[in-house]
Amino acid sequence: MIRNLILLLIFNMTIDTTAQTLATLEVEMPVASHGISVPVRTDLDQITFLPDAALVLHEIKAGKKVPVAFQIDQGDQRWLYWTISPDPGQSKKRVFVLEKGTGSKINELDIANDNQALTIRAGDRNLLRYNFGTVYPPEGVDPAYKRSGFIHPLWSPNGQALTRIQPPDHYHHYGIWNPWTHVLYKGDTVDFWNLAGKKGTVRFADFGSVTSGAVFSSFEALHEHVVLKKNGSEEVALNEIQTVRVYQPAQDYYIVDLTFRMNTATSEPVKLLEYRYGGLGWRATAEWNKDNSEVLTSDGKPRKEADGSKARWCIVQGAVGGDYAGVVMMSFPSNYNHPEPLRIWPENQYNRGDMFASFSPTKDKDWLLEPRKNHVLRYRLLVFNGHLSKEKAESAWQYFATPPRVTVTKN
User: d(Cα 189, Cα 182) in Å, to the nearest integer?
Assistant: First the structure.
């Protein structure tokens, strides 16, 4: 209590006292961020019920107030989101004040909808496109390969596409997507991944929400995992709410959070059977091969040793479009079978070393999805230009796995 009073006295000596401070927010930063911003949040309803238009957020730096972009996520409770920018001094504690007032307009992310896809943009930079319209394969290819509900392109901050769809070797590969390969449902096995088998598919069904603001853009999409029966009928076995959140980019990186909430669509369980791949898949750019790209896992394994290993995170990066770029794939600690098994194509794939990377939680054991229960997988992607070090990847995962603690002192 005495410490908080001292802090407030210091603020009052150095800061404009005409502003009405609602709360002081202290954020613990236990490890170095290595130049990567860190998303944070706190429960706004525990502080104030004022609308966002009546609030401003500042960081206290050397006794001065620096404006900070924030966003309020509306739900059963309101969450105040902002990002902690990198600090060259590696401060262990960052101090912010939430005030009543009117701040200046801060550039917001944008979501464009062309009735086939949502494209998330920051100014004139495209970041991510989610395809909710059905995309058909090239002419002359079996239309069974059609698909909706996937991410492509995922762009680097400098604009290089890091994903690929419908390659001739695997027409069922769709950028970044999340189907399951070997599934037991009602006594029969179903394959939602390999579309040519015509046993199952995954379809976009509807949007739950689409939001955009100064800190992030996000959407919630309902995906139906559909069993295709020999008699031509269909049945939805699994519903998945996929939430995608893209944070405001820095110059050479940005963060994407993916959450998959799965529920059985009937009173029957769905068992995801052990198989060498299935789950979060990423078919990378056709420009990458064994000579111009690389893999590094959280256990220090390169591409030759990565497949089948378990990891908290995995860096995949390489030369693209005259530049260098990549993605750190991160698995959340509460995910099934975390640290998660990896499926990484070998260096001799098609004698070129084409790149495919996947977190596959059922690679080495079954997963029973029981009725009337939520089954959740969470991932974070750090999308970047340049070469990313293992230290940056580890720090980014640490702040994903254990978000910074926010201590709120109400005035």
Answer: 7
